[in-house]
Specification:
The protein has about 325 residues and is mostly helical. It has 2 domains: about 70 residues, no CATH class; about 220 residues, MetI-like fold, CATH 1.10.3720. Helices cover about 75% and strands about 0% of the residues. The chain contains 15 helices and no strands. Helix 5 runs antiparallel to helix 12. It is globular. The mean pLDDT is about 80.
Length: about 325
């Protein structure tokens, strides 16, 4: 199949899947228990004022009518207004998205780089003490319960040792002062170290094990034997022939991890009070803030679908044997 036709078919598929998910999310949130008006209305408000607020939000309309209005607004770029904040949902997401991208993209790329490097070394030294140590460490890291590990890191390094802040992204006193840009950047990095370290440790194990498994399979291929017969050095065989092809599954995993990182690893952001999309998503769902929660989920959906397309195209570029 020509690449252009493949891309066109994938785009059609993405649009259909996205629309189905949009529909499911709309009805799922409105059929869930809870009433957003009850949470946001002042107890001192009169019943008449409360009913007027419900009418303003359009929650008195039948579900099918609310759905048609939502779809129409969506295609005009209007994601709605947050019930809690009273602000356009798009503005809220744009203010939180950079925080999530900064933390989770950095942690994913660092973990992927380290995982590929260590997985390559582990597979090349199969059966050695180094291989055993790396494999066991990766398994432990891969199976760690994220909230438990994050709380331990926070308790030991922030609460007990006092080396790092207990949470947040900035120190307000630093940012309202006349401190230089470098000082402010260092302040953000100081706050980011603990959540970054937590995510790095959690993701490293999966990338290492994936690379090790793929590398062991590649080392059995005929072209590796041919490369040795040609007299190529072990370093060249490992890095230029084996590692490049073994990295294909890791690229898929990294691409999807970057896509799913848009949701911010909600629990991690919540524990470290990192002001990202994930933390906002938890708040929106727990408070039945339909417009904000839907927008967060739709953002995740769109990024994951596009990431799948990009990964498919990268596969054909990295491995000429793959054709669509």
């Amino acid at each position: 199949m020509p690449k252009r036709k493949f891309i066109f078919n994938k785009l059609i598929e993405i649009v259909i899947i996205f629309f189905v998910i949009l529909t499911v999310l709309f009805f799922l949130f409105r059929l869930a228990p809870g009433d957003p008006v009850t949470r946001m209305v002042d107890p001192m408000l009169t019943p008449e004022d409360a009913r007027h607020l419900v009418e303003q939000l359009g929650l008195d309309q039948p579900l099918w009518k609310q759905y048609l209005v939502y779809v129409k607004n969506f295609f005009t770029g209007n994601l709605g207004t947050s019930f809690h904040y009273g602000e356009p949902v798009g503005n809220i997401i744009l203010s939180k998205l950079p925080c999530t991208i900064l933390l989770f993209t950095t942690s994913t790329l660092l973990a992927a780089f380290a995982g590929v490097l260590l997985g390559k070394i582990s597979a090349w030294n199969k059966g050695s003490k180094l291989d055993t140590f790396l494999s066991i460490s990766a398994l432990i890291g891969h199976t760690l319960f994220i909230p438990w590990f994050a709380l331990i890191v926070l308790w030991v390094l922030a609460f007990k040792a006092g080396w790092f802040p207990l949470g947040g992204m900035i120190t307000p006193e630093v940012w309202i002062s006349d401190a230089s840009v470098i000082v402010k950047i260092l302040d953000v990095i100081h706050h980011m170290i603990l959540p970054l370290f937590t995510l790095f440790c959690i993701h490293l194990g999966s990338y290492l094990l994936l690379m090790r498994s793929a590398m062991l399979g590649v080392l059995q291929e005929d072209y590796i034997i041919t490369a040795r017969a040609k007299g190529l050095s072990e370093k060249v065989i490992r890095n230029k022939h084996a590692a490049k092809n073994a990295a294909l599954p890791v690229i898929t995993s990294v691409g999807l991890s970057l896509a799913f990182s848009i949701n911010g690893g909600a629990l991690t952001e919540q524990i470290f009070t990192w002001p990202g999309i994930g933390r906002e998503l938890i708040f929106a769902v727990s408070n039945n803030d339909y417009p904000l929660a839907q927008a967060c989920f739709l953002l995740i959906t769109a990024v994951v679908l596009v990431a799948n397309l990009i990964v498919d195209l990268l596969y054909s570029y990295l491995d000429p044997r793959i054709r669509y």
